[in-house]
Amino acid sequence: MNKINGYTEEEAKSLVEYIWEGKQAGKTLTCLFATYGAAHGRAKGSVRNYYYALMKNRKKDERVVKLLDGKQLSVEQIREFTEEETDSVLRSILKEKSKGVSVRRAICNLAKGDDKLMLRLQNKYRNILKKQPERIEAIAAELGIRPTEKSFLQRRLETEINALYDRLTQSLKEENVRLSNENIRLRRENEALKRRAGFKEV
């Protein structure tokens, strides 16, 4: 069976159609990657990487050109944080954290439900923490925030709270995926019924 970058031609066509329909409905690529992956047993990141590979089409595969013809699809460019933005992000995270919440919860609060932004903030913070911990310490000192040593029980409680929060978040995401897929199915059925009604009138 002929494949396009690891997907069968039918799978590639299915993904392109799914993304195109989703974008027409105003959905983000991040959301579509997640819902498509959940519906087809593929990881969100895997779907994203495959879609980006299709869009780049470095091998100039005519089958890909045909699949994308007329769809006017694109990729969302990821812009790196500037130095000023990085410092601003660190200040915001540290201010939230000073309220007694974990770094993860602080980032989640700042992202306000935007999974893509949450991932960017989390990756940026971890990267700075690993490579430039003194930068975080300097901003904490600037804000008058003193590091506190947590007891074993505090760390354990925070871990349990984070685990519970993750489970609830995952549950909500799965429900959103189910509802999104159901919405797409109903819309397709509605379009099919309209086409049938049109044929009968003729």
Write up what this structure looks like.
The protein has 202 residues and is mainly α. The chain has three domains: 3-68, Arc Repressor Mutant, subunit A, CATH 1.10.10; 80-148; 150-202. It is built from nine helices and two strands. The chain has helices at 9-24, 29-40, 44-56, 62-68, 83-97, 103-111, 115-131, 133-142, 152-201; strands spanning 3-4, 7-8. A two-stranded antiparallel ribbon has the order 1-2. The longest helix has 50 residues, at 152-201. It is elongated, with a radius of gyration of 22 Å. The protein starts with a strand and ends with a helix. The mean pLDDT is 78.
Biggest sheet, spatial arrangement of strands? 1-2
Based on Cα principal axes, name the global outline: elongated
Number of DSSP E strands: 2
Number of domains: 3
Q: Please report which band the strand proportion falls in: under 5%, 5-15%, 15-25%, 25-35%, 35-45% or over 45%.
A: under 5%
Structural class: mainly alpha
pLDDT averaged over residues: 78
Keywords: Coiled coil
Coiled coil: 169-196
